Amino acid sequence: MTSGTALLAGTVSVLRPGMQTTVQDLAGRGGMWDVGVPPSGAWDDLSFALANLAVGNPPGAAGLEAVMTGPVLRFARRTTVCLTGAASAATLDGRPLRLGVVTTVAAGSTVDIGPCAGPGMRAYLAVGGGVRVPEVFGSRATFLLGGFGGLGGRALAEGDELPVGRAENLAAPLDVAPLLPPLGPEWTVRVLAGPHGAPEHLTEAGVGELLAAAWTVDHRADRTGVRLTGPAPRWARVDGGEAGLHPSNIHDSAYPVGGIMLAGDTPVIVGPDGPSLGGFVVPFTVVRADRWKLAQARPGDRMRLELVSPAEAGALNAARAALLADPRAAVAAEFERTLDGERAPVLVPVPVPVPVPVSPDGHGTLAELPATGYRPALALRRAGDHHLLAEAGPAVLDLHVRLWIHLLAEALRGSGTAGVREIVEGVRSLLVQVDEELLPLSTLAGLLAELAESVPDPAAVTLDVREVTLPIAFDHPAAHEAMARYARSVRPDAPWCPDNVEFIRRINDLPERADVFRIVREATYLVVGLGDVYLGAPVALPIDPRHRLVTTKYDPARTWTPQNAVGIGGVYLCVYGMEGPGGYQLVGRTVPVWRHVPGSAEPPWLLRHFDRLRFRPVDAAELADLRADVKAGRSALETRAAKFSLSEVDDLEAQHRAEIAEFRERRQAAFVAERLRWET
């Protein structure tokens, strides 16, 4: 057996770390989107892949991604490097370092990547042999928000030593400068329609306006997502019903990377560290071959969205794959064009133009099945070029539909179909990622339609689940700090400021603020989704309709939420898996729901689909002790075996029909009154 040390050829010393430099690889980590672990990996995957190819590394080798200002590095041994992306002022021992050109670095030499002053904002460095940090969940990529991958889940720091692999048996080096994509302050990003759109969510004219607009990249653009500023969407409805007060709100559904969600009235393009599950409309998805542009778009840059057909998207992706499969041929072709006096781009040959209506085939619809018997209606739609979103039933909350979706997902998992990469369950939806070379989306749609015919009646199914009791500190100081930060720096006039709990009381017509806490304490919640806000974070629904408080999500979202904050959005409750942005109205804080112990056989996510959740009130001091115990592994969550079946829900609705109806009417009246208060 070869030891890890034997695979190393030396180290690279970090003299200055740069603004935010991380270890990344090309593919990132897969297979964990369903529990809220994003792929991560190099965001400008084109520049990163070209740098790796240049020094002869295999595709899986890790390198460095630097943002705005790159690091200063000293190399202990002689090696080769290639720099790509936006590093226009890089030097080697004080001499200019050319982008895309393989350079030999002598032992003791220093590379200063320098500022990414624009155009572009990210630089990539590949080192012969690759950066050999340990793999976490199958990848060396750093996920900063989750705190794992790369160098202990963090950005580089002064004094770090980066291990570098041996440079033996690498492919011959290749200068890739002719293949580097052009950077600039103006971007055209190709998108596919769907999975949502007109006429259900947006007007036809509103969809067209989103495509016609000249968007500006907001300063809040990072690896989680790129926010765009521009005209407000034109909605086809006044609210999201039980999903939330704003028309952008939908029952929680999974996002593809590159999906353009409308978070309130703000478009946000999901990045490689973005959330897997959330409750916002997604009218467009960026074509995979164009996602690199999102990494290089600087705040203040202008961006337009160009709608293309699935055939055009396929041609763009095929051109990218051909380039990376044989970069030497691409360099030769570019050289010949230069000799002929041409300078046509070789990266993405323009396909034959195909006229594309504003909403082609609905919103990416591949197939539709009508409702029959206990099977809900099923719409199968494109969510980009390698994701399919299946949506079941009407856009209302129905636990029969939620359980049916789970049974469909289990059938797909059990089929062992080659080419399925991710399966993510939403409240009434299922997102499936594929390797489109093995499993075209049209083939997957046919398979899902076939599996849907054999899904059993959910009313006849009883699940073996757990009842999990979590401690909760209502009115936790960290929750109030998040509210205060939002009021100071984002939107002080928001109706949920300064107190989210008072907003929940008002919008549900409850007599006292304490009634919000009473209902959360008395309710039994059913986990209907995981990873709603990363890392195993549950989205849960009260089993008893009398406990279903309804509110709306922040618009725009918070930029900071404390780890394990507990909030309500729409009719759902969520526990935040980690610090980060968020939109749920906060009521308190609980213990961690994610615990990663390297080397442990236990999964790091502590909750499961269809767990029954209860909350036990504690004060903030006791919660601090309990949080420390769970983090350190000194204690586990309080659980016991339980069952769940739809008959429980049906019985509750039958026994308390009048009370439930009165509660819903009172809640709806308060809901409408609140919206009118906003409008005036």
How would you describe what is shown here?
The protein is α+β, with helices and mostly antiparallel strands and 680 residues long. The chain contains 14 helices and 34 strands. The strands form six sheets. Strands 12-18-16-17-14-13-19 form a seven-stranded mixed beta barrel. A seven-stranded mixed β-barrel has the order 25-32-29-30-27-26-33, surrounded by four helices. A hairpin with a 7-residue loop joins strand 26 and strand 27.
The radius of gyration is 26 Å
Strand content: 25-35%
Measure the end-to-end span.
Answer: 72 Å
Instruction: Provide the spatial order of strands within the biggest beta sheet.
Output: 12-18-16-17-14-13-19
Instruction: Please give the share of residues in helix.
Output: 10-25%
Q: Biggest sheet, in brief?
A: 7 strands, mixed, barrel
Q: Oligomer, anyone?
A: single chain
Number of β-strand runs: 34
Helix tally equals 14
What is the residue-mean pLDDT, rounded to a whole number?
92
